[in-house]
Structure prediction request, 548 residues.
Amino acid sequence: MEEAAQNLGHGNKQLAERVVASSTARNLELTVEAVVEDYVGSMGWSQFLHVFLVSIAWVFDSQNTLVTIFSDAQPTSWRCINNSSSSLCMSSSSRGDVSSVCGLTPGTWEWVGGHESSIVAEWGLICDRRFLAAIPASLFFIGSLLGSAFFGCLADASLGRKRTVLLSCILSSATAFLTSLSPNIWIYALLRFANGFSRSGIGICCIVLATEVVGRKWRGPVSQYGFFFFTAGFFSLPLIAYPTRANWRNLYRIISLLPLSYSVLFFPFVSESPRWLLVRGRSKEALDVLKTFARRNGKTLPENLSLANPSEPKEGGENEALTRTCTKESLWRTKWAAKRMITVMIAGFGVGFVYYGVQLNVENLNFNLYFSVGINALMEIPAIVFGTILLGLTSRRLLFSLSAFLAGISCLLCIIFSHGKHVKKAEKSSAGSWAQLIIEGIGFMAASIAFDVLYIYCVELFPTNVRNFALSQSRLSLMLGASIAPLLVAAGRLSPSLSFLIFGILSIFSGVVSLWLPETKNAPLYDSLKQQEEEEKHKAAGQGNMQA
Prediction:
């Protein structure tokens, strides 16, 4: 009897040990960050392919944003109609500047490139109607401003990153094609607003979707890869616009086909963000995505692995709260996050104003439009290369502020070489024009670096449950600045020095404001506001103790 009792006790002990061992085996709970770093790999083949497929969408974002450089450009030359014997027309033509046509009788002159070369030529947006030409571009950026808030909310609260990009691509394609059918300036402006609203989901979601699946040391470089494709889209515009220079409508028709083709042929192979799936409570799907990445990298995840969700529990669940408030309430009611967001938006306003304004302002340079746009597009390449290298060597804050300062100083130097629009075509290769083009190119490169760095900076400043919304607010401020820029460009047709002066001042101001932001280099990506607040307080306390 005693032996049986001893055997029973021994058996219970072994069973208890197995239960404990089994419980321990089941409790390998890691964050997405730890799984990516320790098991999937910081940057393997699967992540490279994912980032590549996601980043292609930046091409369409660039094309839809910058197409107005050509479609809304003021023609550079005009001529008297052969059967016109008007001495006023002949004398005005000899002066060679576009403003000379303002006093001429309609029908006595024509644009050299044809009346369908741009909306300015087709709808007569010159002289007292010249500011109407700035309305479509401004409305485009206002649409982008509103769309950034809408798609950022949608991506965090319901659709996710992947489906938001898909929706944005399809809507961009549809609105670009409808724009080509515009019968007048007002319908055209309305459709540009719709196109700006539609394309907003591409940029804010692509950068988040790409950076949330790689290790922390790759976040900086990966954020820059998307801008390579943005540059490719920018560089493709002169190549598409030149053959279609006689009809601006064909330009819109061509760029409308590309995002639709991408949505059908490439986008189905993109994965959803595992971080977003986890925050939404879909941990099994998040784990499946990570297993797929690991398998394609030639690795396997532990059988007993589960994902830790650090989102603070609430009645009805964090995910229900997230859907209910669309993350806006959490961010704006958290004091530290709200202050940080406001600082980012102020800095973003100036950078957006300068980055887009300088691109649109190329028509106010004393140089050929297609060549100037090509040079600006080429300057994006060293901007991305230098930005990628410097992100690994310097702090985010220092790189952003110095880039903004350099862009501002370059714009101010351009004033020296601004000779107005009264420069004849034959004189556009003067030394002054070349110097202005070089300085403007350097300034644009610096503005491009600041613009690119702001995206990755914003990704690292905020946690997963509000990251897309925070990035949308940052983009909102960029678009607000960009929406005002076309008006300044229109004013620059009369006084180029004024436009460069304001660009310079605002860029320097953005660099100063950014000095109040915290540094995020090599910091982990947090998943909730509460987690980030606690971790940053703990880190600050530790640094204070070390200094003491």
